Amino acid sequence: MKIVLYAHGGSGNHGCEALVRSIIEVLGKEHQYVVFSESVDEDNFYHLDALAELKQATLPLPTGIGYLRYLIHMKLTHNEKVYYRNIYRNVSKMLEDCDLGLAIGGDNYCYKGYLERFSVMNEIFRKAGVPTILLGCSIEPSMITDALLVDLCNYKMITVRESITFEALKKAGVKNVVFCPDSAFRLPVMEVVTSKEFVEKNTVGINVSPLIIEREGCNGMTMQNYEMLIEHILATSDMSVALIPHVVWSHNDDRKPLLLLYNKFRDTGRIYLQEDCNACELKSVISRCRFMVVARTHASIAAYSTGVPTLVVGYSVKAHGIAKDLFGTDTNYVISVKSLRQPSDLTNAFVWLRDHEQDIKVHYKGMMKEYINRTHDLKKYIY
């Protein structure tokens, strides 16, 4: 079977990379895979070309008369789909001999403009006679609109990775929906050398993203909370701190806030900034931490799946939903970035995590293997 993975933003977001790698891991190497990517250069850099054929999904806007037609059409219709039909104008030509399209964008429907983007891609695949499946989605219940429901019904199947989205879609009348854990729970680990400051199983891995800073409820409070947390760890324990970026896009680069934290505490000799590497190598680093405090969903999944007690600084339904499915509640496992009001809020949440370290590890041991095995359900949905 020739399977197209699309809605892939590029491997500079290691969550996107993890999805490509883990979907192929789950479905098996017997299929032929093509990735329609927003950035083939990024994917080549992280060696996704070893797993799949890579094709650039987008083209620049047309020039000359074509660009003039585009401008007129946009001015007359004010329809964003006009833009997406133009940049994806080459996709239909790339669908020859393809059997199935898998939309792997995760929570892309939660972002402005992505309904129009996805509906255009769905339209292109349908016209080419290629069925589509939406994989591992998370959708804020408040964002479920009539227009969204129309587009969702055009998929052959929808798999959701957490029960909040599953229940919301069922309540909205979506019938072609099933639950299946995020495939990245099965992402393989690839060993990588860490810095001398990294103490095996006695390091707190920390991830912060520009995305949560943009969504904070109180200006500057996110970084104040992370600073106080690191101060607390260094003052009250012998643990080291590893600052772990999981997205390195120029417009959304975890290294920028992490570098500020590193420079503030570098003289302690107990903190280091992890160099960029691929998703499997990052999972190796995360798996060797004692605790994780993370903003990125797929950094949290790397931690959960390797038995690391984890606190998520969340901004959307995906963090809350995955935690509720794993623990029966998101309380104490997810702290909303919008709820940060005092510089000590994150530290207080971490203290609870630290005090319940053994209980959490016992819980993982009792349920994680079965939960991860459920990712294999994906196989039966593609046929």
Give a topology summary.
Blueprint: E1 2-8, H1 14-27, E2 32-37, H2 40-45, E3 53-56, H3 65-77, H4 80-87, E4 100-103, H5 114-127, E5 132-137, H6 146-152, E6 157-160, H7 163-171, E7 177-179, E8 203-206, H8 210-214, H9 221-236, E9 240-243, E10 248-249, E11 252-253, H10 255-265, E12 271-273, H11 279-287, E13 291-294, H12 297-304, E14 310-314, H13 317-327, E15 334-336, H14 345-355, H15 357-373, H16 377-381
Parallel strand pairs: 1-2, 1-4, 2-3, 4-5, 5-6, 6-7, 8-9, 8-13, 9-12, 13-14, 14-15
Antiparallel strand pairs: 10-11
Largest sheet, spatial ordering of strands: 3-2-1-4-5-6-7
Extract low-pLDDT stretches: none
Largest sheet: 7 strands, parallel
**Regarding CATH, which class of the largest domain?**
Alpha Beta
Overall structural class, as computed from helix and strand content, comes to alpha/beta
Our measurement of the CA-to-CA distance between the termini, rounded to an integer number of angstroms, reads 10 Å
**Portion in beta strands:** 15-25%
General shape: globular
Question: Radius of gyration in whole Å, from Cα?
Answer: 21 Å
Please give the domain count.
2
Helix residue percentage: 40-55%
Q: Which architecture of the largest domain does the CATH hierarchy give at level 2?
A: 3-Layer(aba) Sandwich
Query: What's the CATH topology name of the largest domain?
Result: Rossmann fold
According to DSSP, the number of beta strands is 15
Average pLDDT confidence is: 95
Multimerization status: single chain
CATH superfamily of the largest domain: 3-Deoxy-D-manno-octulosonic-acid transferase, N-terminal domain
* Helical stretch tally: 16
